[in-house]
Amino acid sequence: MANRHTVVAGKSLLLAVAMFGFGYLMVPIYDIICEVTGLNGKTGRVSIAEAQAEVATDRLVTVEFVASINQGGSWIFKPQVQEMQVKPGELNHAAYYAENLSNMPVVAQATPSVSPQAAAKYFNKTECFCFTRQAFEPKGSKEMPLTFIIDPDLPINVDRVTLSYTFFRSPDQS
Amino acid sequence: MTSGVYRWMLLVVCALALPSVAWADWGALNMPVGVTEISGKVYELHMRIFIWCCVIGAAVFAVMFYSMFKHRKSKGAVAADFHESTTVEVLWTIVPLVILIVMAIPAAKVLIEMEDFSDSEMSIKVTGYQWRWQYEYLDQDISFFSQLDSASNVARQANSTVDPASIEHYLKDVDNALVVPVGKKIRFLHTAADVIHSWWVPDLAVKKDSIPGFINENWALIEKPGVYRGKCAELCGRDHGFMPIVVKAVSQEDFDTWVGEQKMKTASADMDAIRQWSQAELMATGERVYAANCMSCHQKEGQGIPGMFPAIAGSDIVNGDMDMHVHTVLNGVPDSPMQGFGSSLSDVDLAAVITYQRSAFGNQAGDILQPSHMRSLRQGLRQSALAVPQNNLKGVN
Amino acid sequence: MSYSDKAHDHPGHDEHDDHHHGPAKGLMRWVKTTNHKDIGTLYLWFSLIMFFIGGGMALIIRAELGSPGLQFVDPMFFNAMTTMHAIVMIFGVVMPAFVGLANWMIPMMIGAPDMALPRLNNWSFWIMPFAFTIMLSTLFMDSGGPAGGWTLYPPLVLQMGDSFAFVIFAIHFMGISSVMGSINIVATIFNMRPPGMTMMKMPMFVWTWLITAYLLIATIPVFAGAVTMLLTDRYFGTSFFSAAGGGDPVMFQHIFWFFGHPEVYILILPAFGIVSSIIPTFARKPLFGYDSMVYATASIAFLSFIVWAHHMFTTGMPLAGELFFMFSTMMISVPTGVKVFNWVATMWRGSMTFETPMLFAVGFVIMFTIGGLSGLMLAITPADIQYHDTYFVVAHFHYVLVPGAIYSLMAATYYWIPKWTGNMYDEKLGKLHFWISTIFVNVLFFPMHFVGLAGMPRRIPDYNNIFADWNFIATIGAFGFGFSQLLFVYIIIKCVKGGKEATTEVWEGARGLEWTVPSPAPYHTFEVAPEINSTTVTR
């Protein structure tokens, strides 16, 4: 009888431990779901070769660029152009400008987000300053390029896509 | 229980209900119909499901109360012995399911309409800060902050002598309202600079979380000119209850005039920033800026809240080197509620509030920071002025 | 470790032969006890004390909200109160009280001599007072109690001072206690049933607790994982929930509500079980649709895992997600409806009397249904976008938790206290307690529907004058409801001290094994497994 208790308790405990692990497993699962569904405007990343395989269409979509600064950091951060008209399937180039207004070297991380979310998974970047952290000298500035392609499968009722970057002071300043 | 007690109960319920009917404005009891097509549809959905719920509730309670009055032992009821009936049980599984489907279809339709962002005519970016909103008109190059108006701000302080009831739009008014044209589909892009906020205007049936690092979107097409008031809906810290939203919907002509005025204002702000200010002027402006931006944490007398928010009175930073003080106000202190105000306050406001802090609350620094100097500091013309070694920041918190 | 196997070996044994000893004397009886009745009693007293602590916090909140303007507390402390009130009421009152009832009643209901793992049982209880001492002590620390809401959303919660670590530590302890308690309940129900006590002969309370225990084992560890991630984000430089390091604050909400939604059923399923025991007793008629009750409970539990994102409709979600979570949420009302209909059908053509437990059970059915119907309204996504984070939501969940879960606990106390103490409680006072509570609880929570719809957000310490009347009424209700609970304590103490002697059966229509042992229940019961055959009434 005591054995039977150990078996049930052991199995239950195993379930509890497994569910604790599942809590952590939800992190990668969430990332995958975001990537597949575009949840939270996470954008895709493709290689140049993949991008060039796309077929261009005649449709025109407005891409709007937005910049935000987190925690009121001392930055100038803005897109070089407010918006552009692009054809889905074509490779496009754009850039953001950032300037460190403080007298300290700072490492920044830009996080991208696309709205509407329905468009996020069709918004693919081949090159982006958000892929890596950006180091700035005191008072340093730079223009940061971005290359993207919009998948021609973009839902037909989406005529305007907003690409937003938020500039964070990177938690790792080394 | 005797029927006398029930009668007594009924009396109490009526007695409680009557005055409340008399006092309350019935308009303040229900969801507003709002001023957009979507808000009207949401209201209809709300009323439809509400009526369904009332009908279902009334039916269930009617059967229940009938049973409670008729099938009681004191009336000689003898218990039956049935305890299942497949027909009945299947029936009351299927019928609710059908009702649910009937309710779900119109709800899904409205939802699909809400999520259709196409053919928008203008974009406004809304950024949530602790505890104010920033509005950026992406097509107009207009950007400003909007926060609790000063009348409410005075009245809401603990031990304030101002009666909140005496202020018409207590906690519902802001210094700079969001002005938008009617009859245009406006996209709102939501993000936040610190913690999660939520931008909610009931009359437009829009509520969307502002999430730091991410962008969210919703839209409204306002049909009627007017002033529509909302609130931050997501708990965002100490002053969550004090960051209202005011949307002023005006005709296209009025909107164009307003846009012109805003551009003039920016120009005159430029003029202000380059002229010389007297200490008295700076102190007066600084007091106002302090009340609006600093007071809720650092408190009225600059005493702070020990353990949570450091004091301004007697602070080493405020009484010490001006550059360090400027640096702290501009950039904030990492990993603390102290945000940087570099991107949200004007040169004049920054110079004024720093000057004010250095002389108020018994602080002895007493020096003046001119807006023009502030501007040059910010534009990086005087590169050495802001050189602050990183390790000096330790212990600021 | 088990008593019942010994009992099986010696079927003819006298009940008092093997375990002659009664309870030990003095304080150490309670510290060292492994007796399921003692531990049940400890849990119940603990949650009663916490009920007044959490209630005191609620009264601070309602006092501040009594009129516009800040009158008593700083907004930061106000936020700490709303946060603590929730944590105390959920983890310190409703959950331990249900565990206490499970401890007392499950062995007696299924005919087992004790819980399967008595030492673990002692440990699961004694962790709780320490966990809550740590949790409540943060209120006296420099950086204050948790003020970011019980939902602990980052990044706000990460702005908290160093008392944050204590909060997380305390939550871990509460979680460990709940999981251990649940494991014990599962082992008891599976292993300790005497021959003849089949699963479908178990009382509904046992069934609902079995399912609740699985919900706890499956979700509390997920919550523990989420708060551990918060802890490492705060102190060890990870970026699970910070966009700067590639994380996402919304992911916390998904993980939290994956725990949080089953959690709300953890708070209500045992209440369903209690009400399903009480109504048949006082209707003098077996529970209608027992089988469908079991299946409905199981399907509610299953559905609770696939509806979590309905707490997050405003965070921005793809249309397909919104539709899915809207439909799945609406589906929950089907099994919940089945339960309500079954209770009504149990009353139908019964021979009802309305003693205090029945009054509370009927009050539960009515007011829980009101809360359930407003829940259905909240499921409609476009409307939810308007309701979300307003007092409408506050009204909804307080209707299902106060006249819902808390009423079921009061009903259970009145129902079983004669069995626990051997004395009848004061019926007149009990009825008075019910009527006063019911009037005030509605005065308290009903107006919240109105202010919520009219645009008052939740978790705010101050508001515009247009909400003043209803808030004032709610505050009157809060103080009335709060103070009338002192009557509850008086009735309990009076009953413990003495009163009319209770019979073995206690209630005329009582059904089930717990009513076959004497009142008060002896320290050890069912040391000899009861004889159960197809005609034995066990539920």
Structure description:
The complex is a heterotrimer of chains A (174), B (397) and C (539). Chain A is an alpha+beta fold and 174 residues long. Chain A has 2 domains: 1-37; 43-169, Ctag/Cox11 (Pfam 04442) (Sandwich), CATH 2.60.370.10. The relative contact order of chain A is 0.22. Chain A is built from 3 helices and 10 strands. The mean pLDDT of chain A is 82. Chain A is flat, with a radius of gyration of 22 Å. Chain A has helices at 2-37, 48-52, 117-120; strands spanning 44-45, 61-69, 75-79, 83-86, 91-100, 106-115, 123-128, 134-136, 141-150, 160-169. Chain A has a 5-stranded mixed sheet. Chain A has a 5-stranded mixed sheet with strand order 4-2-10-6-8. The termini of chain B are far apart. Chain B has helices at 3-23, 37-70, 86-114, 150-155, 252-274, 279-293, 295-298, 316-319, 322-331, 347-359, 371-378; strands at 122-129, 132-137, 142-146, 178-181, 185-192, 197-201, 206-210, 216-221, 226-232, 245-250. Chain B is 42% helix and 15% strand. In chain B, the strands form 2 sheets. A 5-stranded mixed sheet of chain B has the order 3-2-1-5-8. With 397 residues, chain B is an alpha+beta fold. Chain B has 3 domains: 29-74 and 83-116, Helix Hairpins (Orthogonal Bundle); 122-158 and 169-259, Cupredoxins -  blue copper proteins (Immunoglobulin-like, Sandwich), CATH 2.60.40.420; 275-393, Cytochrome c-like domain (Cytochrome Bc1 Complex, Chain D, domain 2), CATH 1.10.760. Residues 381-397 of chain B have low confidence and may be disordered. Chain B is elongated and about 90 Å long. The longest helix of chain C is centred in the N-terminal third of the chain and has 36 residues, at 75-110. The radius of gyration of chain C is 23 Å and the shape is globular. The model of chain C is unreliable at 1-19 (pLDDT under 50). Chain C is mainly alpha-helical. The chains are: A alpha+beta (174), B alpha+beta (397), C mainly alpha (539). Chains in contact: A-B, A-C, B-C. The interface between A and B is large, with 37 and 43 residues.
